[in-house]
C-alpha cells in the first residue's frame, strides 16, 4: 500500500472494516475540512500517521468519532456534563451559565472557545430553534472532531440531538472572528479559556489539553467582544482567578462551585 505524505497536520480515516455510510461520512468531512481522507487498509492508526507524516488522525467509526495522536490518550467526542446540563434545562431547571448570560430564547451566541462543545450545546438548547449559536475552535483537528461529533451524535433526547445540529462550528482564531463582525451583531459572546491549573483531572478534558491554547485571553479579545455583543460578555474561570479583574469582569459567585462566571453587561443603546 503506497501512501504519499500529506500537507496537513491531520488526516481522516475509518475503522478497519468501514461500511458504505462511514466511508461517505469520511469523504464529506474531508471535503468540509480540507484534510485528506486516507483509506485505512490493514495499517494501525500509528503506522498510518507515520507513513502520511501526520501528527493527528481522525478516525470515523459506525457510531462515533475519535481523534488520535499516537502516544497520547484518544480524544472521543461526547457532550459529557453538557448533556446532563442540557436535559436539566429542558426540564426547566436553571443553569448558572445561562443565568449569568441573561440568555433568552431566540438569542444569538458566539462561543469563542468551543472545546468539546458542551457549553455550545447548552446555549443551543436554551436559545431554541429561533436562536443561533456559533462555536469557534482554533485547533483544526478538534474542530473536525466537533463538526463530525455534533452532526452524528445520537442521544435518547431528540431536543439535544437537534440542538447539536443547529450549532455552527468554525475553525478560526476567535479574535479574527470578532474583528470581522459588525457592532452589536451577537447577543452574547462567551469565553471559557483552558485553565492553566486544571480544577480536576477529567478523562474528557485531559486529552483536550494536548490541543488547547494555554495562553491567557488578550485584552483586545474582550474589547472586541464588548463591541460585538448586544447583551453580555461572559467568561468562565476559577473562583479566585485574577483574570476577572484583569479583563474587567464582574464576578457572579453563586454556591460553592470551584468555577464561576464573570459578566460584562452591555448597554446596547450606546
From TrEMBL:
Pfam families: SAM_MT (PF04445). The keyword Methyltransferase applies. GO terms for molecular function: methyltransferase activity. Its EC number is 2.1.1.-. GO terms for biological process: methylation. It comes from the Bacteria. Keywords: Methyltransferase, Transferase. It is an enzyme of class 2 (transferase). Gene3D superfamilies: Vaccinia Virus protein VP39 (3.40.50.150). CDD domains: AdoMet_MTases. This is Class I SAM-dependent methyltransferase.
Amino acid at each position: 500500500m503506497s501512501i504519499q505524505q500529506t500537507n496537513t497536520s491531520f488526516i481522516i480515516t475509518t475503522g478497519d472494516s468501514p461500511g458504505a455510510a462511514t466511508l461517505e461520512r469520511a469523504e464529506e468531512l474531508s471535503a468540509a475540512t480540507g484534510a485528506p481522507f486516507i483509506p485505512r487498509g490493514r495499517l494501525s492508526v500509528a503506522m498510518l500517521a507515520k507513513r502520511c507524516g501526520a501528527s493527528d488522525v481522525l478516525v470515523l467509526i459506525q457510531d462515533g468519532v475519535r481523534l488520535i495522536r499516537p502516544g497520547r490518550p484518544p480524544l472521543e467526542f461526547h457532550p459529557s456534563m453538557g448533556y446532563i446540563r442540557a436535559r436539566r434545562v429542558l426540564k426547566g431547571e436553571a443553569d448558572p451559565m445561562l443565568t449569568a448570560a441573561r440568555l433568552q430564547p431566540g438569542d444569538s451566541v458566539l462561543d469563542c472557545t468551543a472545546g468539546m462543545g458542551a457549553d455550545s450545546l447548552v446555549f443551543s438548547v436554551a436559545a431554541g430553534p429561533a436562536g443561533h449559536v456559533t462555536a469557534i475552535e482554533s485547533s483544526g483537528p478538534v474542530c473536525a472532531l466537533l463538526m463530525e461529533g455534533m452532526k452524528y451524535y445520537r442521544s435518547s433526547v431528540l431536543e439535544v440531538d437537534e440542538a447539536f445540529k443547529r450549532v455552527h462550528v468554525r475553525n478560526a482564531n476567535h479574535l479574527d472572528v470578532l474583528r470581522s463582525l459588525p457592532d452589536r451583531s451577537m447577543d452574547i459572546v462567551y469565553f471559557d479559556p483552558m485553565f492553566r491549573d486544571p480544577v480536576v483531572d477529567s478523562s474528557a478534558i485531559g486529552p483536550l489539553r494536548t490541543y488547547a491554547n494555554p495562553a491567557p485571553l488578550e485584552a483586545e479579545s474582550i474589547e472586541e467582544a464588548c463591541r460585538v455583543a448586544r447583551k453580555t460578555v461572559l467568561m468562565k474561570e476559577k473562583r479566585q482567578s485574577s483574570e476577572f479583574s484583569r479583563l474587567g469582569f464582574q464576578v457572579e459567585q453563586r454556591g460553592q462551585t470551584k468555577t464561576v462566571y464573570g459578566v460584562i453587561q452591555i448597554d446596547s443603546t450606546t
